[in-house]
Specification:
With 318 residues, this protein is of the alpha/beta class. The protein contains 12 helices and 9 strands. Helix 7 links the parallel strand 5 and strand 6. Bound molecules: N-carbamoyl-L-aspartate (NCD). This is Aspartate carbamoyltransferase.
Length: 318
């Protein structure tokens, strides 16, 4: 394992990780470098480090999750923390009250790190103001999902080298996607060219102000892309009709071999999961040689270890 040049705490001097917004390129790069070490640790027989020994990590999920919650759990355990999972089914009517009450209750148990997912944008920021520990945003509504963007960047970097100068096409339901927002900010911070492709009903107003090129035609948007990042159609966040039918959506925006052929030869395909096969992506592509989807899951654990480790060094007595 390589020695770090500067301690991550020296480069990443934050108490919380609430979003990619506001992070400097050097901070992002420091986290990715630290995650490279975590990849090595995670591939060994002995996967444990002691940086979180004695610490308590609570995963507080108001919205269900498979890979994000389990990877935060594994990441905490690999660093030696005591990890507790809390899945809270919350009614949207009681949202504000439940959130604050739960935060205050958990805070009284002296956790060191809270990992929080909530269906409302901004809820994790609010919670961070009410507790004395570090807070990590594991996804808040359609706002941010910073560890997803970090794991995507790590996956890209390991295959394509430095991220600047790459063309990354983010495709599909941009409107409802916290993954897209966090990725746009991170990729822009590292100097990539970012494109967003989707039907006009799924492109948010003001998207052009985020420094992306916008396309409503997949073939045009995919032309010469290095990375094709597909998004899930977030039907649970749609009230109303945003796409005529799933079949028509796949016809125009689903990634299949023919559309992918417009990207650069050797372009790589990503998806944060969970995937709707046959809706936004053809199974043959999802499981094909250009797909990085399974590797993204492995990188997810490593990136979460890196974030936990960086924050741990900024904890009191860290
Ligand atoms: C994403 C999420 O929850 O925002 N998934 C994930 O974190 N693995 C994307 C999605 O749900 O479509």
């Amino acid at each position: 394992m390589n020695e770090l040049k500067a301690s991550p705490a020296a480069v990443f001097a934050h108490r919380h990780l609430l979003g990619i917004e506001g992070l400097q390129a050097e901070e992002i790069t420091a986290l990715l470098d630290l995650a490279e070490e975590a990849v090595e640790v995670s591939r060994q027989v002995e996967k444990k480090k002691a940086v979180l020994r004695g610490r308590t990590q609570i995963n507080l999920f108001f919205e269900s999750s498979t890979r994000t919650q389990s990877s935060f759990e594994l990441a905490g355990k690999r660093l030696g923390a005591d990890v507790m999972n809390m899945s809270v089914a919350s009614s949207s009517v009681k949202k504000g009250e439940t959130l604050i009450d739960t935060a205050i209750t958990l805070n009284a148990m002296n956790p060191d790190i809270l990992v929080v997912r909530h269906h409302a944008a901004g809820a994790v920021h609010l919670l961070a103001q009410k507790v004395g520990c570090s807070v990590i945003n594991a996804g808040d509504g359609a706002h941010e999902h910073p560890t997803q963007a970090l794991l995507d960047a790590l996956t890209i970097r390991r295959h394509k080298g430095p991220i600047h100068d790459l063309t990354v096409a983010i495709c599909g339901d941009i409107l409802h996607s916290r993954v897209a927002r966090s990725n746009i900010m991170l990729l822009n911070a590292l100097g990539a060219r970012v494109r967003c492709i989707g039907p006009s009903t799924l492109l948010p107003k003001g998207l052009d102000r985020l420094g992306v090129e916008i396309f409503t035609d997949m073939r045009a948007g995919l032309t010469d892309a290095d990375i094709v990042m597909m998004l899930r159609l977030q039907r649970e966040r749609m009230d109303g009709s945003f796409v005529p039918s799933v079949r028509e959506y796949f016809h125009f925006f689903g990634l299949d071999a023919e559309k992918l052929s417009f990207a650069k030869p050797g372009a790589l395909v990503m998806h944060p999961g969970p995937m709707n096969r046959g809706v936004e992506i053809d199974s043959a592509i999802a499981d094909g040689p250009q797909s990085l989807i399974r590797e993204q899951v492995e990188m997810g654990v490593a990136v979460r270890m890196a974030v936990l480790e960086a924050l741990a060094q900024n904890l009191p007595n860290g």
